[in-house]
Amino acid sequence: MILKTPNARLQPLILALCAALLSGCAGMQPPPSEVPAPVVEAAAVAAPAPAPAVVVPAPAAEVAAKPDTALLQDTLNPERKIDLDAPAAHADLWSRMRAGFAMPELDNDGVRRAEAWYGSRPDYVGRMTERGSRYLFHIIEELEKRGMPTELALLPFVESAFVTDAKSSAKAVGMWQFMPATGRDFSLKQNIFRDDRRDVLASTRAALDYLGRLYKQFGDWHLALAAYNWGQGNVAKAIARNERLGLPTDYGSIKMPDETRYYIPKLQAVKNIVLDPARFSLNLPPVANHPYFLSVNIERDIDVELAARLAEMEIDDFKLFNPQMNKPVVLANATAQLLLPYDNAGRFVTNLAAHRGQLASWTAWVVPRTMKPADAAKQVGMSEAQLREINKIPPKMLVKGGSTLLVPRTAKRNQDVSEHLADNASMNLAPDVPPLRRVTHKAGKGESVATVAARYKVSRSQVAQWNKVSSKASFKPGQAVVLFLNPAQAGTPQRLASNTSRTSKSAQKPARTPAKAAPARLASAKPAGQPQLR
């Protein structure tokens, strides 16, 4: 069984978590609801009624009165309690998902091709369903709140195989595969400290917001999904083209790239597998119908390594639930809550309350002026190699003033990172080149912009600009030619093969500059063809 169900008779450790989350002990306050305003009217989608709710109302007093019953607060929905003894909590989540399927069926060669692809890879399907089992309950809950078809919970299988830190060649990131600009449009922060496109809660909220907006625009789920993959502007243009030609404007009629054409059949194939896995000789792991994780508030910055240790988790497992951090520290002003499995959440609360000592060994430092990494490292008391590694500074680059670096805490620099920096920190670099020297060259007989440029290994356009002449101009004998050179160029100008005055016109003719290569086209937002095995 992939999804671990907590003990029905919760141990005192978990009951302590209840008390902490309900009363705010250990300085923790119940988090506000993460549920955004619906973006799709419930009446707009004919979704069947959801399966019986996993959570049941129960006041805090009832928890105290029933210590033997596994009642636990759903921290993402603070007004409700989870009854782990209720039969609904042990129902199969796949059944609840099937009851909410409401999208039109698709049956074509692309669907059969995708079915054959998934059906021939049971190990791959097993890995991605195991990963998905951690997040499916939360996604289905959010879909039902919005009145959206539960097929959309399967979209990360197609997008990323539920790899929360997946990154495509086109720079789409996270299990919902947001491009940078689209992520920013839906309030997913991306800076040196974190990338909310990898955040489980934030990216799910943004993806459902986006899909709801697309459905509202196109009034059709297949067109909305095509727009999610190809871009809403492209789909709108394809529809407008067909309207001008008097052609149908449904998903099957508009022109689109092959990758987008195959995108929805892949989702339909996954849906068909969920509906009847035995038909494809596949097994779906049972997934319990209750939340897999809790959210736990943090009020101070804390090292990722320490947070994992307090939760009694391997760091890689910790990052499965909290993959958004770019640095080895969780910032309270950026990520105010951690996601942890039930048992680990309880251990974290208990161990954090008992912890004595520093929580974070890192903080942010704003570079006061443009500096070499070696000078910056010396100023903050760390090695240059460590500064470069943790801040990802490439060789031969300067750090520009106003940039934010992650540096060790000291007695004088021990504050948590401010909300402003947590949200807006950036790092800007500049090439580390030696300063240029002004050099005056006395032109010889027959010298031109081209010959001077060749002598000093600079471009003709630079020589022309420095001297305010045409790039085809010639200089008079004895004329002062101004150049700005680095030390290597200024030291030993290249000798010409023969006396300048004797150089033939053909030798003086500047070599033709090779044509610039055409820029490569931007990669597609999603890799074409079959899903990438993960």
Summed up:
With 534 residues, the protein is mainly alpha-helical. It is built from 22 helices and 13 strands. The strands form six sheets. Strands 1-3-2 form a three-stranded antiparallel β-sheet. The chain has a two-stranded antiparallel ribbon with strand order 4-7. The chain has a two-stranded antiparallel sheet with strand order 5-6.
List its salient traits.
mainly alpha, Lysozyme, flat, 534 residues, two-stranded antiparallel sheet
The first-to-last residue Cα distance is 21 Å
Q: Structural class from helices and strands? A: mainly alpha
Unreliable parts: 1-70, 496-529
The share of residues in helices is 25-40%
Bin the strand percentage: 5-15%
Instruction: Count every helix, treating DSSP H or I runs of 4 or more residues as helices.
Output: 22
CATH architecture of the largest domain: Orthogonal Bundle
Q: What's the alpha carbon Rg, rounded to whole Å? A: 31 Å
**Could you tell me the number of beta strands?**
13
> Can you give the mean pLDDT?
82
- Level-1 CATH class name of the largest domain: Mainly Alpha
Biggest sheet: strand arrangement = 1-3-2
CATH topology of the largest domain: the name is: Lysozyme
Reported for the largest beta sheet, the result is: 3 strands, antiparallel
Structural domain count: 4
Shape, principal axes of CA atoms: flat
